[in-house]
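User: Reviewer 2 asked us to show a designed sequence for the structure in our supplementary figure. I'm pasting the structure tokens here. Could you produce the per-position amino acids so we can include them in the response letter?
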């Protein structure tokens, strides 16, 4: 089992690895010039033993129902930046108190096909934490082992028809959880940094 110091050290070293920004368009052509880049923040929060906190979005949501996601969302007017948005959303979605979070740094923003510039915030959860999913937003909160997240070999490309054309996207399934799209792409970028 990993120790907190090892997890923290590996994540901090990963932040120092030079890497470019990512997008949902990495395998699908250029980012459209007219696509908005609304700021958003997501929290990649690791428990001290290396498990990453993820959520399954509620099936009744208008956007991305049932998808696996990092806690987070768009930057609201009261948020100072993307990190503040990620921390606020994690508190709202799963009850994670920001005082229990040690922010380590941020990865370059990931541009989504839905028009967001999503900044992944790498963090550690201090002490024990049991998520309390907000029923209107989160169907389930769960964790994925560090070894799964950190291994680039656990990610693959798939494709499907979307809006009249084929679209490629990354996936990193884990047990019953189908991690895909922007979440998988952001985690793959992290895995590559961790293995550099």
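Assistant: Here is a per-position design you can include in the supplement:
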């Amino acid at each position: 089992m990993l120790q907190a110091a090892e997890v923290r050290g590996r994540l901090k070293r990963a932040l120092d690895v030079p890497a470019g920004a990512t997008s949902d368009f990495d395998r699908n052509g250029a980012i459209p010039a007219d696509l908005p880049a609304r700021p958003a923040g997501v929290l990649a929060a690791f428990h001290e033993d290396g498990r990453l906190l993820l959520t399954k979005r509620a099936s009744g949501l208008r956007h991305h129902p049932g998808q696996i996601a990092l806690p987070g969302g768009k930057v609201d007017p009261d948020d100072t930046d993307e990190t503040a948005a990620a921390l606020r959303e994690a508190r709202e979605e799963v009850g994670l108190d920001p005082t229990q979070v040690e922010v380590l740094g941020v990865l370059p923003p990931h541009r989504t096909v839905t028009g967001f510039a999503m900044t992944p915030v790498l963090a550690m959860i201090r002490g024990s934490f049991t998520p309390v999913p907000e029923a209107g937003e989160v169907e389930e909160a769960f964790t994925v082992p560090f070894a799964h997240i950190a291994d680039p070999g656990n990610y693959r490309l798939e494709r499907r028809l979307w809006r009249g054309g084929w679209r490629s996207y990354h996936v990193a399934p884990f047990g019953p959880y189908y991690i895909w799209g922007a979440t998988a792409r952001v985690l793959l970028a992290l895995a590559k940094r961790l293995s550099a």
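For the response letter, you might also mention the following. The mean pLDDT is 94. The first strand starts at residue 22 and ends at 23.
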